[in-house]
Amino acid sequence: MSLQEKSIWISLVVTLLIFGYYFASAFRVFSDPAADQTKLIGLFIGAVVLMIIIEAVLHIVLAIAFKREAEKSEDERDKVIDLRARRISYFVLSFGVWTMGISVLVDASPLELATIMMFFFILAEAVGFSTQLFYYRRGI
What we know:
Elements: H1 3-31, H2 39-65, H3 67-70, H4 76-105, H5 110-138
Helix pairs in contact: 1-2, 1-5, 4-5
């Protein structure tokens, strides 16, 4: 497995774990009418900060452990895989934009709209990471 694949695995796992917890908490808050929805803002900020810290530390450890590979630059294969994965994740994000438009029509609250937007952003990122891993395994 190349350093690039290991880096993608780190990003995918960290994203799914941290934001999986965030969206599970958001679902509980939105399903309970008595819950204070503003606590999701603090939870979101905490999730973003935690994700940045964990990813930075893990990528630093990865770069130190595989110093020779880390010094290599990206080749054409990496660029093609990244572009193909971005194209697929763009469609997921576009679907999310349409979903937000429909949510506006059914009178969703601003916090619900922000959560929907974040869900599709994270989903698009996860799809992009997964697609990159698929293409690396496939040997494109």
